[in-house]
Write a structure and sequence with these properties.
By secondary structure, the protein is of the alpha+beta class. The protein has 21 helices and eleven strands. The protein starts with a helix and ends with a helix.
């Protein structure tokens, strides 16, 4: 089964002319020439990034989702590829309502009629992993029940996902081995990151936990509404949430007709972002327009909580230092903050990194602040950081992706949005709270409960540290023994699959 699927992947690779990637690659030149000798016709008139997107769309929903995740790694991809992959749409036909009802009843252990007073068989949304139905809970005391959104996992999706993930891992290994930038691009780590995100989405209780945390963080907010989770009607395969009525944020004309203050809404987006990042350290990391509505009272409504990001206190501190340094054009502080945080090797010279950052930022700062995209500044810095071997942290990639989403949305709502002017007072106040006497008091209050157990044991632990001997265990593996032996097997398997794929391509082309 996997061989047939891999053959289809290679056939698609040929059909969209992606063997262009093999040009001038000595280690795989034979494969490129095999593609060139194939007589089957194909249209290579479109730009290569477009052909990559079309190839992923033709391979199905899992590859579409992988392309979406890959589009967020702008630290790894050229801009034209990232922009094209960002256009991928995760829309697939819904499965039938009888199947949805069966999944719900089996997962929750009760008939639909006992669970919901009403259940709409026509889904309101459908994607590769799940689809959403509108329903209504049973009321009490003669009152109508609450309207809810019921998210149902696609049946038998897990084996399909596991198969495609295994093939993606194989392809990532080949890319890392044979492409010139393979090791730097870390394709296996990207696939592993995608694997984690996708498996999180396959457990709807994970999404329920994310939604509950965000709901608690924004209770009583005048900027954002997060729906409540109904855990009695939720499981790994079913998620029941409070129904949210609103206007999709991308429908600007409808928002204007409804009398929504678009300038205020754009400022809300920026404040929500920085509140999540710096006050909560927990943020919705998939805030594209399809996941955001606007309520009648002008507040945002957040939906779809499968992907979230979290930050440690150290992450938040260094992010704030970097942001404020950017605002103040203090490039030396940017460089030293990167070194202090461990994001660049310790031996990096601050002066060299400072010069590189200045080269990126100075031309941008010559523009009016309202015309500067802070998200694009981050992208340029990521590109510059490659020569300094900067290790881009996964949580920072999610953060950068979210910032780009928020900034793009804000500019769509208000073309004159000044992200810098909106964010700087927030960051300055937050830094003062962290570094000043209020921050000290908060830290002492947080640590105080630990003192009751730590202080009495401190003399004994100090004595043990001074008089005891530390034994250092050295454990060395031998994982290199079989690598060279496996290299030849990879090439033989790939050539065999390629021949099968070319036959399949010929059959598909008839």
């Amino acid at each position: 089964m996997r061989i047939a699927r891999l053959a289809k992947i290679v056939a698609t690779f040929y059909r969209y002319g992606l063997d262009d990637f093999l040009v001038d690659r000595p280690r795989v030149r034979l494969l490129h020439w095999l593609f060139r000798l194939t007589p089957l016709p194909r249209d290579l008139s479109l730009p290569r990034p477009v052909r990559v997107r079309l190839a992923l769309e033709s391979l199905g929903p899992i590859f579409v989702k992988f392309g979406q995740v890959l589009s967020t790694r702008r630290d790894l991809l050229p801009e034209d590829y990232a922009d094209e992959l960002a256009r991928l749409q995760d829309k697939v036909p819904p499965f039938d309502s009888a199947t949805a009802r069966a999944v719900i009843e089996q997962s929750l252990g009760r008939p639909i009629a006992e669970l919901y007073d009403e259940f709409d068989d026509v889904p309101v949304a459908s994607a590769s992993v799940a689809q959403v139905h509108r329903a209504r809970l049973h009321g009490q005391d003669g009152k109508p029940g609450l309207p809810v959104a019921v998210k149902v996992l696609r049946p038998a999706i897990k084996p399909v996902i596991e198969q495609d993930l295994a093939l993606l891992a194989v392809l990532a290994g080949l890319a890392e081995r044979f492409l010139p930038d393979g090791k730097r691009l870390k394709p296996r780590e990207v696939v592993a990151e995608f694997d984690r995100h996708l498996h999180d989405e396959l457990d709807l209780m994970h999404e329920a936990g994310n939604a509950s945390q965000l709901h608690r963080n924004f209770i009583g907010s005048d900027m954002l509404i997060v729906p409540e989770v109904y855990y009695d009607y939720s499981s790994r395969d079913v998620l029941t949430l409070q129904w949210m009525d609103g206007i999709p944020v991308g429908q600007i004309e409808r928002l204007r007709e409804a009398g929504v203050d678009l300038k205020k809404l754009s400022r809300f987006g920026v404040e929500i972002f920085f509140t999540q990042v710096f006050r909560h350290g927990f943020f919705h990391a998939d805030m594209h327009p399809g996941n955001i509505f606007v309520a009648d009272d002008g507040r945002y409504i957040a939906l779809d909580f499968g992907i979230v990001g979290s930050l440690t206190e150290t992450d938040k501190h260094y992010l704030a230092v970097n942001f404020l340094a950017f605002f103040n054009r203090d490039y030396h502080r940017v460089a030293t903050a990167h070194i202090e945080s461990g994001w660049v090797p310790k031996e990096t010279r601050a002066e060299e990194l400072e010069a590189a950052v200045r080269t990126v930022c100075e031309p941008i700062f010559n523009k009016p602040l309202s015309q500067i995209s802070f998200g694009m500044v981050l992208l340029r810095l990521f590109e510059t950081s490659r020569r300094f071997n900067v290790e881009i942290q996964p949580q920072l990639v999610l953060l950068q992706k979210t910032l780009l989403n928020i900034e793009g949305l804000g500019r769509q709502l208000d073309p004159e949005l000044d992200l810098w002017d909106t964010a700087k007072p927030f960051l300055t106040k937050w830094m003062n709270e962290q570094i000043g006497w209020r921050g000290l008091l908060r830290t002492l209050k947080h640590e105080a409960p630990q003192w009751a157990t730590t202080l009495p044991a401190l003399p004994r632990k100090l004595n043990e540290a001074l008089s005891g001997q530390t034994t250092e265990l050295l454990v060395q593996g031998y994982i290199q023994l079989m690598r060279e032996q496996k290299r030849q097997n990879f090439l033989l398997l790939l050539i065999a699959v390629l021949l099968a794929a070319l036959l399949l391509a010929g059959w598909l082309g008839r």
